[in-house]
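Predict structure. Chain length: 406.
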Amino acid sequence: MSSLQFARDQALAPGVSVDAYEITRVIGVGGFGVTYEAHDTTLHRKVAIKEYFPGTLAVRSGDGRTITSRTSDGDHFFDYGLRRFLDEARTLAQFHHPNIVHVNRYIEANGTAYLVMDFEEGESLEDYLQRRARLEPDEIHELIVAVLRGLRRVHQQKYLHRDIKPGNIFLRDRGPPLLLDFGSARQALENQRQSMTVVLTPGYAPIEQYAEEEAQGPYSDLYSVGATMFRCLTGRHPPESTVRLNAIHNGSDDPVSQPLRALGAARAAQLLPLIEWLLQPRSRDRPQSAQEVLDLLDRGNRAVQAPPTTGRDASTGEPPESLADLPTLDLNVPTVAEFRISEEQLAAFSSALAEYVGPIASVLVKKSAGSEITADDFVMSLASEVEDEHQRRAFLAKAGEILPVA
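Prediction complete.
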């Protein structure tokens, strides 16, 4: 049994009280905690409560409440994590920002601790992408501006997030997106050259985050922003930075490039160059602050062009005046006008899609084929009609056989 499933199975039962809060249901499980919806019995409102419960280190006792270390040897590690959990509370309590989750209280009980936060209706970006596969460029632009504004405040307070990814971005039903889970945000920038515990998510972490002694800074979080944009635009998990560097070192293509080329110029033109700048392997070649990226976006040119090797003026080291000043990236992909599909391929798509949506498939195929879109957008527009994730993946596999994308 995985530690996540173990923690879920041992979560507090509905009706159990923690101080003045009555647990209603589990709404999330992570490697170091369980998040609940709860009822504030004093103010009569919903709240979210995060419980420190590392599934690999701890176990729930027979009373259904108390958490203890699995072994006596694990006490040290459990207590160390508990102190870091308190650090998270102190960090988040500093922020009163529309794009950062806010902690209202810190409670010690049941042998562990709890963070009490505002409850928000909505879902994580990760859950949203499981249904939608990917976002439109305008949606990504709006989302990333909100994330950058939150990060700007975090960095101004001399903290790093260190785990930006779709699972830690919450899409509220009402209000702008929120940055969640600052479990890695405990290192002040002044101490960035001191040894740090390696906490990362493969694909979203820059190369410097793999080494405890490596300097990290706002540029590290910005790499993760670029990786998140890559996921939103392509529908694929970004390749690990270690894999990218190994490929480049061996003279192979950067594995980031192919999925971006496959998008087609019409879809990728707005955001691809910015993604490439944020995902530069070397930290010095990326933007150095969230404000730097926001300033470029706010100058009104969202149809950004590709950055030079470093994205900075080679003579002065200054960032570009505008994204329009950067040279054009040659994607070497078909334009909309070059996209052609045969009658045989249309029939094959109708047959493949009908397995999941029924007779309406032929109508959907004809409608999508009649639009001026790229081959990739044509396939993804059909895939979006398949609600089940596993069925959607099966359809995409069949689509790749019918209409391979270069």
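Summary: The first helix runs from residue 3 to 9.
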